[in-house]
Automatic annotation (TrEMBL):
GO cellular component: membrane
Chief localization: membrane
Segments crossing the lipid bilayer: 28-46, 66-87, 94-115, 121-144, 165-186, 206-231, 243-266, 316-342, 348-369
GO biological process, one term: xenobiotic detoxification by transmembrane export across the plasma membrane
Protein's name according to its UniProt entry: Uncharacterized protein
Subcellular location(s) per record: Membrane
Pfam family of the protein (one): MatE
UniProtKB keywords: Membrane, Transmembrane, Transmembrane helix
Membrane-topology annotation of the record: Multi-pass membrane protein
UniProt entry tagged with the keyword Transmembrane helix: yes
Database matches in CDD domains: MATE_eukaryotic
GO molecular function: antiporter activity; xenobiotic transmembrane transporter activity
Length: 370
């Protein structure tokens, strides 16, 4: 839901309605913190839910432990998404870079201490994530409070943020649906892998594939055209928005090709970063060509989706993602995996089918938009 700020804050800043950037951000914080409460309850009962869905008991219990210890990070993550977009829409990326860089270095140290030294295992890993997210939030909050660069857009907490929350929800809910339809389809692939023969191997490899995909996806998010497009639209310059989109598409295609080639080059060693099991390492190597193709498509659609969010087309994109992933992607994955017996590779082939449909639809939307 926080991605609604890419539209609201971006267009408000472009229209020079600076105080509304802060109001929209505060309104989003209140909404996301409230939403985190029921999500925390779901996380608390993760193991029970997974077992009820016939997942492997050992995997389900470990996932439940991880989620319970990550509940504090859920609230921090909600605030962090709002702060990031508050700064992004004003093109203030250096503070975010410094904060994230410091947090990443701290995370390595904290994770090593909690997992390896104190021997907390998976609990330590989850706790390290929570600590890192809250540190990042605190650093950005300090910058926001004391930096003169945010003086116009953050004038302190306003009662105005308590009003007209419905207007945020009208854009926030479609934003959440749009993104969740996409994210959940990837997560569902990992879920379906637990129903295949040898679920521990399949789940391990698909989880590695998903983590790799999200890591690469973050590069595309950084290149996303949402903020620039929303700024130009707010300023009443649609031609500038289209130019920004074209520039970002050029960057996305170049970055996607580079990532795809790199993925192919490291295919035989990538699995060793996650596991010492030879079977897992060999399986990951066979998955990497599919990951290379999906990474290329995913990076391209990320920019196109960002432009759509910048223009406020979340409702349309939600329907596109629904059709691409749940009418094409997931059914194709089941057919490839269960009918043609391609296993985990078949599940990822289904994701590629969904991505392909999504890219074609988004190209058409952006190409023919006024």
């Amino acid at each position: 839901m926080g991605s609604a700020l890419e539209t609201l804050c971006g267009q408000a800043y472009g229209a020079k309605q600076y105080h509304m950037v802060g109001v929209h951000t505060q309104r989003a914080m209140l909404t996301l913190l409230s939403l985190s409460i029921p999500l925390a309850i779901i996380w608390y009962y993760t193991s029970n839910i997974l077992i009820a869905l016939h997942q492997d008991n050992e995997i389900s219990n470990e996932a439940g432990v991880l989620n319970r210890w990550m509940i504090p990070s859920l609230f921090a993550y909600g605030i962090l998404q709002c702060l990031n977009r508050f700064l992004q829409t004003q093109n203030k990326v250096i503070p975010m870079l410094i904060s994230s860089g410091f947090t990443a270095l701290l995370h390595v140290l904290v994770c090593w201490v909690l997992v390896s030294k104190i021997k907390l295992g998976i609990k330590g890993a989850a706790l390290a994530i929570s600590i890192s997210n809250w540190v990042n939030v605190i650093l950005l909050a300090i910058y926001l409070r004391f930096s003169p660069a945010c003086k116009k857009t953050w004038t302190g907490f306003s009662k105005e943020a308590l009003h007209d929350i419905l207007s945020f929800l009208k854009l926030g809910v479609p934003s959440a649906i749009m993104i969740c339809f996409e994210y959940w389809s990837f997560e569902m692939i990992v879920f379906l892998s637990g129903l295949l023969p040898n679920p521990k191997l399949e789940t391990s490899v698909l989880s590695i594939s998903l983590n790799t995909c999200w890591m690469v996806y973050m590069i595309s998010v950084g290149l996303g055209a949402a903020i620039r497009v929303s700024n130009e639209m707010g300023a009443g310059c649609p031609h500038g928005a289209r130019l920004a989109l074209r520039v970002m598409i050029t960057f996305a295609l170049s970055e996607g090709a580079t990532i795809a080639v790199t993925t192919l080059l490291v295919r035989n060693v990538w699995g060793k970063l996650y596991s010492r099991e030879e079977e897992v390492i060999r399986y990951v190597a066979r998955m990497m060509p599919l990951l290379a193709l999906s990474d290329f498509l995913d990076g391209f659609q990320c920019v196109l989706s960002g432009a759509a969010r910048g223009c406020g087309w979340q409702n349309l994109c939600a329907f596109i993602n629904l059709g691409a992933y749940y009418f094409v992607g997931i059914p194709s994955a089941v057919i490839f995996a269960c009918v043609f017996h391609f296993g985990g590779k078949g599940l990822w082939m289904g994701i590629i089918c969904g991505l392909s449909v999504q890219v074609v639809a988004l190209v058409a939307v952006n190409l023919f938009a006024d």
